[in-house]
Amino acid sequence: MPGNGNELSARAPDQVLEQGRSDDGLLAVRAGEGDEEAFETLVRRHSPVMLQLATRLLGSRTEAEDAVQDAFVSAWRKLPEFRGASAFRTWMYRIVTNRCLNQLRARRPATDLDSVPEPAAPEHRSSPARVAESHAATRALAVAMAGLSPEQRACWVLRELHGMSYEDIAETVGISLQAVRGRVFRARRYLTEAMSAWR
User: What is the number of other CB atoms lying within 10 angstroms of the CB of residue 155?
Assistant: First the structure.
């Protein structure tokens, strides 16, 4: 049945594109050969978590969207060099993290932490008060995170909010395992002190 073979080969690219995350390597190879549909699948698959990462690192949805878009443009250009030594997702984590780190390093400190008033304890525990307290705590955490160095912030976000192992963080950020542990430790200590009013 030669006709069936042709139909199968015609459907194969679509089937490959719809498979689970395990085929990222194949999609990356195809994208590196110029297959735009394969790259679009990778973008759709990985952009939500990359946007979440960039938003947490930069503290701005607009800046995060720009950073992720730039990261995927950069990935498209570099795909012919992608050898699959690490997973495509890990590779994208590295590109997005580095782009965000560069943006953070270029910033001037936005807020002097000494100028931020200490939050008042809520007087009662009604539901609206708890909601307001939660929003205030979130804002306080954002201010506290601005006090971290870009590298500490990246390591802390990747560890605490994205659940990455120290080894994966070291690969993503391009530093030693010991440096990752030190930065996560210092970030935790700093944030614990900065958020002490909220305990």
Answer: 29
Q: Residues 87-146: pLDDT tens digits?
A: 888 899 999 999 999 888 887 655 444 444 444 444 444 566 565 666 676 777 778 888
Instruction: Return all residues near 144 (Cβ < 8 A) that are at least 6 apart.
Output: 113, 190, 191, 194, 195
Note the pTM of the prediction, 2 decimals: 0.67
Q: Of 105, 101, 40, which Cα lies nearest the Cα of 75?
A: 40
CA nearest neighbour of 184 among 60, 167, 197, 199:
167
Residue type at position 124: H
DSSP string, 103-166: HHHHSPP---GGGSPPPPPPS---HHHHHHHHHHHHHHHHHHHHTS-HHHHHHHIIIIIT---H
Q: From the CB of residue 191, how many other CB atoms can be counted at a distance below 10 Å?
A: 19
Distances (CA, A) of 112 to 45, 66, 102, 117, 119: 38, 26, 21, 11, 16
